[in-house]
Amino acid sequence: MARRDWRRLDESDVRVRPGKGSRPRSKRRPAHTDAVPAMVVSVDRGRWRCAVEADPGSVVTAMRARELGRTPIVVGDRVRLVGDVSGRPDTLARIVGVEERDSVLRRTADDTDPFERVVVANAEQLLIVTSLADPAPRTGFIDRCLVACYTGGLQPVLCLTKADLATPDGLLASYADLEVPFVVTRHDRDVPELIDVLHDRVSALVGHSGVGKSTLVNRVVPEAGLATGEVSAVGKGRHTSVSAVALPLPCGGWVIDTPGLRSFGLAHVTPDEVVAAFPEFAEAAEECPSNCGHLGPPDDPGCVLDDVVTSGAARRSRLVSLRRLLASRAGTDS
Ligand SMILES: Nc1nc2c(ncn2[C@@H]2O[C@H](COP(=O)(O)OP(=O)(O)OP(=O)(O)O)[C@@H](O)[C@H]2O)c(=O)[nH]1
Ligand SMILES: [Zn+2]
User: Mind telling me which residue stretches traverse the membrane in this protein (predicted)?
Assistant: First the structure.
C-alpha cells in the first residue's frame, strides 16, 4: 500500500519549533508528561469525546488545547489528554497532542473540490457494506471505496448483505482479481465470519442508505440501538447524526460507523497513488510519460503498463481491474 504518500499529507503532526534562546520560557510548549492516552470516539461542535486507552469504558469530553491551533482531530485519532480526565458530568479535559496517523479515510466534497478532509483516522480496515439486492450493488461506489483504501492505508473488506435475496457470485467475480477479502451476511443468520473480521480491530463502515448497515452494526454492537428500516421516512437524514462515531465491540475492537459518508470525492488522489497499490505495475509506471493517467490508449497512448502484461510479468485482468479503479476515480458514480 502507498503508505508514504498519505503520510506526507497528514496534517496532525504537531511540531515543536526548535527553541530559540530569545524566546521567553513561558512560551515553550509544556511537556505534559502526565498526559493520558485516549482515542476520539465522536466529535460534536468543538468538543471531542475520547475513550481512555487504559479503560475503554471511560469516555471523557475534551476540548482542543490552544497550543494545537486548528489541528484537525477526527474520530479514531489517538490523542493525549490532560486536566480532568475523570469523565464525570460537566468536566472537561484538554487534548494536548495528536499521534501520527496509521491510516486516513479521506474524501473531497466532490471531484471539483480541491480541499480534502479526513473523515476517520487509524481505521485498520474499511468494510464496504453493499447489499446484493434491494438496492442493487453499485460497483462504481465499491471501486471508489477501494481507491480510498489503497491510497489511505486501509485494508478493504467487502461486506455483502441481503444474501437471502440474491447470490454474491457475480459481484465477487468482479473483485476476484483485486483479491479483496469479503464476508457475506443475511439478517436471518448468525454472523460468525463478520465477528471474526471485526474482532480486536478498528474497522470503519461505509454504505449507501438501505444496504443494511444499521442492521449489521446493531447485531455486532447490541447497545448501539441504531434506527433501521426507516429508509423512506420523510426527513430522514436531516436530523440524524451525520458524523462518524466509534462504537466498542463486546468481542474487543471498534466499529466506526460513518452515517454521513455516502459518496467519495477523490479529487485529491493521483493516478500514481492508485498504481502504487499494484506491486507488479508500480515500478514500470515510473517509465510512463509524466502526468500519465495510466488508462492506456486512447487517453494515455504512451502508458507502458500494457508492456508489463505483454512481457508476462502481470495478468491482463489485473491491469483491467487497475484501470477500472483509475476510471472510477474520475467517475461520477458515487
Ligand atoms: N431481506 C433482507 N433485508 C434486510 C437485510 N438486512 C437489512 N434488511 C432490511 O433492509 C432495510 C434497510 O436496513 P438498514 O439496516 O436500516 O439499512 P442502512 O444501511 O442502515 O440504511 P440507513 O439507515 O438509511 O443508512 C430494512 O428494512 C432492513 O430490515 C437482509 O439481510 N435481508
Ligand atoms: Zn502509464
Answer: none
**Hey, whose CA ends up nearest to atom 14 of ligand 1?**
212
Q: Ligand 2 centroid to 4 CA: how many Å?
A: 20
ipTM, two decimals: 0.97
Q: Tell how far the Cα of 169 is from the centroid of ligand 2, in angstroms.
A: 32
pLDDT tens-digit readout, 272-297: 999 998 999 999 999 999 999 999 99
Q: Which of the listed CATH numbers 3.90.1200.10, 2.40.50.140, 2.10.60.10, 3.40.50.2300 matches domain 3-12+33-98?
A: 2.40.50.140
Q: Which atom of ligand 1 is nearest to the CA of 163?
A: 31
Q: In what order do the strands lie in the sheet with 245-248?
A: 182-184, 155-161, 125-131, 202-207, 254-257, 245-248
- For ligand 1, atom 20, the nearest C-alpha belongs to 214
Instruction: Indicate whether 303 pLDDT > 90.
Output: yes
CA atoms within 13 A on the CB side of 295: 14
pLDDT at 249 over 70: yes
